Amino acid sequence: MKPLKLENISVKFDQKPVINDVSLSLQSGKIGCFLGPSGCGKTTLLRVVAGFQRPDAGIVMLGGEVLSSSTRVVQPEHRNIGMVFQDFALFPHLTVAENIKFGLRGWSKRDAQRRVDELLDLVGLSSLARSYSHQLSGGQQQRIALARALAPKPDLLLMDEPFSSMDTELREQLAREVRSILIEESMSAIIVTHDQFEAFAMADDICVLHEGRVQQQANGYSLYHEPANPFVANFIGDGVILDGQVLSHNEVKTELGFIYGEIAPNLPVGCPVQVLVRPDDVVHDDDAPDHALVVNKAFRGSEFLYTLQMPSGVRVLCLAPSHHNHAVGSKIGVRLEVDHLVVFPQH
Amino acid sequence: MQNKWVCALVSAVVLLSGSAAAWATENEVNVYSARKEQLIKPLLDKFTQQTGIKTNLITAKADKLLTRLRSEGRNSPADVFITTDAGRLYRAKDADLLQPLKSDVLDNVIPQHLRDKDGYWVGLSQRARVIFYVKDRVSPDVLSTYEDLADPKWSKRICIRGSGNIYNQSLVASMIAEHGEEKTLAWTKSLVKNMARPPQGGDRDQIMAAAAGQCDIAVANTYYYGMMLSGSDAAQKEAANKMGLFWPNQEGRGAHVNVSGAGIAKHAPNKDNALKLIEFLASKDSQSWYAEANIEYPVRGDAEVSQQLKSWGPFKADHLNLSVLGTNNMKAVMLMDQAGWK
Amino acid sequence: MFRDRLAKFSQMFRLWQWLIFFIAALFSIPALSVFSALFESQNAIWDHIKQTVLSDYLANSFILVVGVGVGTLLLGVSTAWLTSLCRFPAKRVFSWMLLLPMAMPAYVIAYTYTGLLDFAGPVQSYLRAVMGWGYGDYWFPEVRSIGGAITMLSLVLYPYVYLMARAAFIEQSICVLEVSRTLGCSPWQSFRRVAVPLARPAIVAGLSLVLMETLADYGTVSYFGISVFTTGIFRTWFGMGDEVAAAKLAAMLLTFIFTLVVLERVSRAKAQYHHTSTKYSQLPEYRLSKGRAVLAMLVCAIPVVLGFVLPATILGVWTVETYASMVDKHFFVLAWNSFSLAAIAAIISVFVALILAYGKRLFPSSMIKVAVRVSGMGYAIPGTVVAVGVMVPFAWLDNTLDSYARANWGFSTGLILSGTAIALIFAYVVRFLAVSLQAIESGLGKIKHSMDDAARSLGCSPAQSLYRVHIPLMKGSVLTALLIVFVDIMKELPATLILRPFNFNTLAVRAFELASDERLADASSAALMIVVTGLVPVLMLSYSITFSRAGANS
Fold it and tell me: Is residue C168 in some structural domain?
């Protein structure tokens, strides 16, 4: 396995920058993810890695070998990088087994057959070896596409929105399955998705992209609890951002009261800031002194997600166990219980 | 698999091209003929039988053969160039594509007006363009000359094919030679007014249309009429039987004739064989074959002709030197355009 | 090692692009060698043409194009719709029989109908005999007229529209049609408002082939005595010996065609005609009531009977009459010549079309697009013009080489390419490349780009993925291209006449020589043989389109 490294990648379409000076790296054997809303450039970046897109500037390196630069591009067929496509792109004129065998040119017949059997076994579809792609369900096609991409033992596997055409339940199940398959094959991989839960389920290392720039690269936990900027804070998880003011090196004042936690040293006392408040930071407590108006509520099985309006007019989200059932329009007691203080400077 | 295809293609192309590569080495003669295969191949076969000289043939329209001859230049494989009209032979000579024929045999048997004045080509058969009339409706007494076809009495009564046809172009060219451009234009305009229908079809169609009642007289070459009479098609035979043949301008210059003829290509690789072939085509036997097979008039008086030709009687032919048809051809076409002859 | 690999690959990419430019340059030689005459000075003949016949050429060509366009659209689209989406008796039979007229050369159908319907022909003679009429007593449509030419050309050319339109209808996603029904469209309305607009690019592709074929037609119009551009070009070039004026006419003809193509592109503007969904299911069939079913059968039967059954029968009758004298062992040599030439040229033409179309997919730059368009231009140029355009530069090349050899090596190389089958095959490929290109491009267009990417990511070079993925996926289109070009070449006449080697005849040449000698009956056996030989690929074609449909089991 080889580590992947992107340095200062830029791509323009018709003079319009789509990828803007992106640098990132992925350790070998890890599963990475490009996460972002549609149009953020994540698929383009993936195509740069795959070699389908020539970068206007920057370098792509895999295991110390330069694959792409603005002047030279190793063709996709010579990168030894596998790819699973959004629409799977299974070859309709070939059977499942033939699809998997497609990339095994140069292998001996016996080795190729063994590899095909091995992969069919791995994805649990040995019985479908002779079927054609249009006879398979979406989930089966997905797994065959994965098997086909894994067959030639690539140095890196790319997956473009691999679960976007599945329903939620199947999506989660497949994501787990695929992850375990990748780990079993000890494969470095990058998936592209707009779905953070998919990213959390699959990836060790998530790279949030917005407007062609890397916003933050971290694991899921850090992204949620330590977002690097308001975009990441908004994009990952629910929450609202409140105005506040730094009172000391570990205290901020907001409309909901004082919040304690570590504050970066570049934010001096008295500086106006933005404070991220997650729904789980707002705790419903009948005894609390502050009350808020229930504006909206969404039932989520074990919990309710309330939208509450504070007396000042600011709205926040609050997660409450579902036995706390309050009607829209009623007032309930709330207090803040912030474990991770996230503060951004005000602009 | 891919390679196999490529191999097959390459070898096929090589095979196809190889077939054309080896000329001038054997005892043979190469013929570019505007006469159709059916009307020349039997004679060529007979020539090969008699002399052992192999003949190679391509047929196409004379103009296209001319273009081919010209573009091939000094490497052209062509030995003999055969056309079905004098105009194209003139054009070939004019474009410096022919060489003079030096043959006492030909000089002796072919009358002077049917040969090029500088000896670049000879006529091999005569084709007369005459008037046919519906026997039931028209008395031959009212027919006289080509000039008379412009008379208002023929209004909407004449069938004649389009102006793209070389025989009509030659006829008009001969009128220009006789009367000058101005008078010929007037004649052409009146002729167009007298047409029963817009020009269409070939010569046989004119005779068919007249016989069926669409018009009263038709202008056509004699051999088409002869073929209709002797052919296997019952309807054509019936139509031709209704028609009479009239030789125009017998009191004056004579009926308009054109020739099919031949010349030797300037860069002929088998010049001697070419001359042998043309002499063979002018021989008594070959001349009779022309008369027999295509009902054309031989160029030599001593050739045996068919009963049918005999039945049409002797006629006086226009002795205008045929080179003139060539020089006047373009003027003729422009003039027909001006007159609105489609 | 990495550098080597890189160098090799960018080299291959460059090679492919250069190959496309080379082909475009090579294939534009015939047209250029004709049009080079344009730059010569003004001449008197051109003025003469302008004053006398040009307005005729313009008007007649225009009427012919519009007439054949409307005729083929009516016949082609209506039958395509009926056979793809309606249910009526004998529908399956009609769906392949509607292709049969494709095997019928336009000049042959013109001969047969003239023989049949002419004033002196059996039909009118019979009418006169029975009714006691004479000339002028009754009205009968004139076969040899511009209306006749429109009818003849429409009858043999509509299958191009039918083929493309039917394929498009069949491939339309059922969802779109059902959506239109739920939005309140009747079947007729959804045909008019959804199906036809969606199929428009395909219909236009078919129509543009038809129009180019119409404008390049010489056999029919000259036989009917109609002055159009092609007859004008011949007359000026060969009758007056003036290449400059002829080139001007040919240039006008091309401008005409170019305008048509641009007009269509502009009117289509930016509307998208992609397939909107990848879900296909068995197409719904509108079950027709009894009266309508009869009407549908009639609509499908008319083009089949008039475009094929009737003329083929006439040819058959004539053949029986003249069989003994016309069919001998030479006849089968002719048939073999026709067949092998057409097969070789069709294979080459498809091969070249694959290089161009796939190259355009790989490098969709405007330069490449233009180069590919230029390569297919020969279809709009009359066969004789292409032939002369091939002959002159080939002979020039041969002679230049020969002069060089004589001067430097002291021997003559003679004519290497001129007068060989290579020149002839080259002319065929130049002339018919547009047809194979059209079919291959539409086949490639249906393959999603993710297929290319998938193949590349699995280690295939572009050429390998063409061979392993694209060709298998569009084998229907490849077959269609092969077959249509094959049939076209079987029928081809002018280039064959002028470029063929010694002692080399084809069926088309034989049929034409006899027919132009006004021996229609004698020409019939060769003509019938063309039709029969052409029938085999046409039947294969109809088989392949009936059984290849997206979503159907392979």
Answer: yes
